[in-house]
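Deliverable D5.2: sample structural annotation.
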Amino acid sequence: MKPLLVTLAAACVLLIPGCSEAPPPAEKKEAPPPEPVKGRTALYQMFNAARAWAPDVQVLSLRSIDLPEVKRERGKAAAWQAYFVSPASGRARSYTYTVIESAGNLHKGVFAGQEESGARGGTSPFLIAAVKTDSDEVYQTALKKAADYEKKDPDKPIAFQLDKTDRFPNPAWRVIWGESVGTSNFSIFVDASTGLYLQTMR
């Protein structure tokens, strides 16, 4: 029996150091860089928040916001700003959806602005159900009409604007080659409901 006890004791001594060793530290995985999002995706996030402000809320406009901290991707944007109106109260409110914290009072996720007067010259509110297309889709539609322009300056930023005017029967996306409408010399309208090409502006 004694040799057996000695053998067991030796085995325990050999096992103890292995058991006392701390496990190797887990490697810390770096968080993936923030990615831009599609316009309709952001619009619905903001719309759900706006319904808590006004149950009868309708969309007045949507525009993309470019952020230098986030890599550009055609058909998407790092931030979006929407205006919603309440027909019952005649008031409007802006919301932003942003993938990161950034300057200009842009906060990650959905952030509500202050209430304002609902009047906006030249545009009319519309139901969110009328937006059946997304910014990546309408970019591809616009690109078919803008292939030559895109080849000349493939790195030019793309901006998006969505609203309803008397020019077209449905809400329309405006795909803008440039930072904004005011600084661009080329943009294309695409129907937000049907996804069909509407008009080229130069």
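Annotation notes: The chain has one domain: 39-201. Residues 1-19 have pLDDT under 50 and may be disordered.
The annotation will be released with the project's public dataset once the embargo ends.
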